[in-house]
Design brief:
With 181 residues, this protein is an alpha+beta fold. The protein is 33% helix and 24% strand. The strands form two sheets. Strands 2-3-1-4 form a four-stranded antiparallel β-sheet, sandwiched between helices.
Amino acid sequence: MAGRQIALIRGINVGKAKRVAMADLRAVCENLGYKEVRTLLNSGNIVFNSPRTTPAKSAVEIEQALSKRLGVSARVMVLGAKELAGAVEENPLGKVADNPSRLLVTFLMNPADRKLLLPLTKRQWKPEAFAVGSRAAYVWCPEGMLKSPLAEAVGRTLGDAGTTRNWATVLKLHALAGAAE
């Protein structure tokens, strides 16, 4: 049940909408009783200890607290440290992707949604590459996310049922969660 958890908040601090100071985000989590709360970057990444709640319950608590205390409506996904470590270990594009800022990992809010992405695996995306893992989709965009038809297709397919981080951020979260060796 408990332990180290990683919250990924979708869509905050992107452009001018949904601005949230990381100090406020930490305070929200600490007020919920989470311990050792740390944020990473300015884009809604939180690592914390929660001895009393499952990741699913933490997601609901954080989402409700963001709305109630900060007036920000945003989807929240929470992974256990082992789930994040599994996504790191499972990455099938590590040998293809040579720039960690252009390898994207889209975490699925519901792992069953991976079936929505399977048709995309049958298309040719060169020079891009695509793979679907058990809890995440891996998108290699050598020309960058903004120029990527693959990243657009994944986003259109999932809507708000996923949240994306680049590989560099995923590895930092993995290390911060204490799962890195």
